Amino acid sequence: MKHVMETYKRLKIAPTSGKGSWLFDDExxxxxxxxxxxxxxxxxxxxxxxxxxxxxxxxxxxHCSNLYExxxxxxxxxxxxxxxxxxxxxxxxxxxxxxxxxxxxARKHAAExxxxxxxxxLTFDKSFHGRTYGGLSATAQPALQEAxxxxxxxxxxxxxxDLEAARTQIGPQTAAVxxxxxxxxxxxxxxxxxxxxxxxxxxxxxxxxxxxxxxxTGMGRTGHLYAYGGMGVVPxxxxxxxxxxxxVPVGALLAKKECAALxxxxxxxxxxxxxxxxxxxxxVLGVVNDPRFLEEVRFKGNILKNxxxxxxxxVPGAEVRGEGLLIGLDLxxxxxxxxxxxxxxxxxxxxxxxxxxxxxAPPLTVTRTEVRHALNTFxxxxxxxxxxxxxxxxx
Length: 395
What we know:
The chain is an alpha/beta fold. The chain folds into two domains: 15-33 and 291-387, Aspartate Aminotransferase, domain 1, CATH 3.90.1150; 49-288, 3-Layer(aba) Sandwich (Aspartate Aminotransferase, domain 2), CATH 3.40.640.10. It is 37% helix and 18% strand. The protein is built from twelve helices and 17 strands. Strands 4-12-11-10-7-5-6 form a seven-stranded mixed beta sheet, sandwiched between helices. A four-stranded mixed beta sheet has the order 1-2-3-15. A four-stranded antiparallel beta sheet has the order 13-14-17-16, covered by helices on one side. Strand 8 and strand 9 (189-190) form a beta hairpin. Helix 2 (48-58) runs antiparallel to helix 9 (275-288) and helix 11 (332-345) crosses helix 12. The protein starts with 14 loop residues before the first strand and ends in an 8-residue tail after the last helix.
């Protein structure tokens, strides 16, 4: 791909079609897709409800300016608010854009309620909130910020999961706390017990907004429509993207009415909420927002997690983290790269995070048979990797 800017370290495969949980190339190879476009292809590939909705909408109206009323946009916003604890929605094109909107909303809300001095946003190490300058400044990973400085002012950082450290950072200057309930790019790190509840209490005490970045954990990924639904904490603001459109680019900012500070002229998006994207979201919601479907996601997630925990017990220092169908197996930097490559060679697509953690995020529609097939392939890859590591003993 000599004419495409090399901003990705691409693997040597080239899928050209997909069906369900499988991807195919023009050479007859097939791959079991256990990363789903990085938790994006929520309904897998070629799902008839999504394909049909896109075809039908494309024949009537693909794009319409937000200078006009867009009826399907209001319909989808109503579906989202009725299914969650939020009142208003802003549509955009990606998770990074949703986080940008959340930062702006939080600062405007703080400025109007308390004054311009209250503008700081607290985030956490190993986080990932996007590659725009606002999102990158919020992302507490120096390696990703290197050579792009200076970062934007007004951000503070604390260790993820360390409530006492967060307590020292939050004060009258804090407009918002932005946190992933489960960190995706940081290695599938689940917020420890009491951490999110403590952040909510701190935000309430200091008049700050609690913002959940659910770009990766949303749309059924953890077995709840949004992860907060299984955590006992309701944020003031939530950002969503990835699985929201099942592969069609779309993002959303969801906010409680009392926090929805953005008004005409404050923010916008040319393509945000256009009819084609809204048709995709409506179709995905129609499948995912079903208690039986979400229960099945939790069931398959438990199968996957329990089997991986048995496997991890055979590898010294290995750890399984995650919820639902967002699971990470930390194998360490010595073993994980080889396991990742062996999976690829054997036709199982997973993702290597931070050089040490294998991330699994299959389509939510993955079958139980496909889960077992992936586990068999994965076990073989781990066993092959362990066998060439003399310090590891295979039980």
